[in-house]
Amino acid sequence: MLSTIFKIKNKGFAAIFVLVILMSLSLVVAYSLSTIIITRSLISSALLKSAQSYYSSESGIEDALLRVMKSYNYTAINNFNLGDSAVTQNITSVGDVTTIESLSSHFGNQRKVKTEITMNVDGIGFHYGVQVGEGGLTMANNSEIDGNLYSNGNVVGSSNSSSKINGDVSVATGMSLDHSHSVYNAETEFGDAAPVIDVAQSFKASSSEIMSQISFYIKRIGNVTDKTIRVFTDDGSGGAQPGSPTKTQVGSTTLIASKVGENYGWVDFSFSTPPFLTADQWYWVVIDTASDSKYFVMAKDSNNGNGNGLSKYSPNWDAVTPVWTLDTGDYNFKLWLGGIATSLDTVNVIGTARAHTIDNSDIGVDAYAKNINSTDVVGAAHYEVQFTGTSGSSVQETVNDPVVAALPISDSNIADWEAAATAGGIFSDTAHCSPTVDITLDACVLDCDFVPTPGIVITVNGTIWVKGDVTIGVGTGIKLSSAYGGNSGVIIADKHGSESTVGKIVVLNNVAICGSQGFLPGNSPFTCDTSNGSYIMLLSTHNHSSTYAIDVSNNADGAIFYAHKGIANINNLANLKEVTAYKLNLSQNTKVTYESGLANASFSSGPEGGWTIESWNEIE
């Protein structure tokens, strides 16, 4: 009986023991599972917080981008809270590159994102109150330029000597086109990868004279930097390659990157020290670049040596023994020779005057010319051949004519602006072409004459390309959108293939044309507020030899006028900031007042189209 009871108790103990073991195992499993679940939960929570921190950091980047691109107010270092995340923005700018770093901390989880953006603006330098091409300048009674003048053609004042320039004057040597090769059916990329880094084109000058200007039909890929254009003698082996092994360089100039657009166009480059070329001798023009992800594309024909010399490329023109490879076509280029006599006649110059010949003028400081005739000079008269008049002193010496200065805007720049306008759409309806009420125009093409009703306000919010004539009536106000900030905008009048008849710009009396600063409140007629370095440029491509590309009446305020290849006529009492033209007429009582900020004017395709994101990545 006892044994039976003992056995039963043992069986009960065994059952309890097994149960305890099973429960223990269950607890271990449950603990392990709960530990795994808790750990994963903690990991998930940490990942979620880290992700929230990352997205807060991204939000900080986006906020800073909006402020920079829209020209809103911001500080270099900015702290704010986004939900439970603390965000710190750090914004720095060097040149055209702006770097934005955004650090976010969300419950101790830190993530940092960095982006670099580049301003896509065309830096057009207007370094003179007036700059004129080969057509030259005529000045009527009491017309005045408050600033410096640079002209590639004759400057003629009024007969009563009341024309006045409150600055220095340079009248460059005249030039003539000596060579033009514009057959375009192929292209060469250069500057991005060996062996096509440096390119060269050989040529001969038709006469012994200075080389005033060289032009290329060219475009760029990416934000290229300035390069060097070099002119070499041939190495003497029948037009084989540039000046090897001695590399005899006779001249150089800067390939100004801002003049080369993303679309093909002719780009002119002049020489501060022009090389002298000997007739019927081979020379080479070399574009010296460096390997980069940003490069150039040169237009060419598909056959080399068609009487235009040879084209070649090299991985390094400056190697001890450079290797040049024959390209498959002649590059598109134009060559101008100088040496044509020009003159300054019957003008009162407050500063220093330089020209080939100076006649019947009053010079407030010094005068430099080969011939100075019937001219009074307060300072020293530096002449080479002849001097008649009075001066503080006179010096007979060798005097070189001022060199040609290429106009600041290229065909390639214009092609880029027109491409930006085209991206906004093409309109020919009455509301866009002949608005009768205040209107805001985004980037667009107006396939019509643009004739707004006089007295309305036109707000420019992008590049405007008018494929017709532009007439701005009495009392009209035109201003840039405030989102442009310190950048400038463009209105272009240009109809391809009809430049001799279409593309004229007429601005009538009492028109206010302002940058992003807008108008003074309560003024009638409109008046521009204090300048913030932002401008609207009205640019015409009309090129007829006797009709005006730009015709501005009195009191037109606050604009830059640019007659790309034609005549600009400025009428009575007009007070302008800057005018550049192939040929310019200043009528009676006209005044041009130059602002120093125009030397660094930056033109954008629009308030939101002026930036490129170069990089965007997490760094912490």
What would you say this structure looks like, in words?
The chain is mostly beta strands and about 625 residues long. It folds into 4 domains: about 1-120 and about 610-620, Pantoate--beta-alanine Ligase, Chain: A,domain 2 (2-Layer Sandwich); about 125 and about 410-605, no CATH class; about 155-175 and about 340-405, no CATH class; about 175-340, Jelly Rolls. Helices cover about 15% and strands about 45% of the residues. It contains 3 helices and 46 strands. An 8-stranded parallel barrel has the order 6-8-11-27-30-28-25-9. Strands 12, 13, 15, 18, 19, 21 and 24 form a 7-stranded antiparallel β-sheet that branches. A hairpin with a 2-residue loop joins β1 (about 75-80) and β2 (about 85-95). The protein is globular.
Quick take:
With 620 residues, the protein is mostly beta strands. Helices cover 14% and strands 44% of the residues. The longest helix is centred in the N-terminal third of the chain and has 68 residues, at 2-69.
Q: How many strands appear in the DSSP assignment? A: 46
Individual helix count? 3
Q: Could you report the average pLDDT, rounded to the nearest whole number?
A: 86
* Quaternary: single chain
Radius of gyration over all CA atoms, rounded: 34 Å
Summing up helix and strand content along with how strands pair, one would put the structural category as: mainly beta
Terminal Cα span = 80 Å
Q: Judging from the principal axes of the Cα atoms, what is the shape?
A: globular
Strand order of the largest sheet: 6-8-11-27-30-28-25-9
Q: How many domains?
A: 4
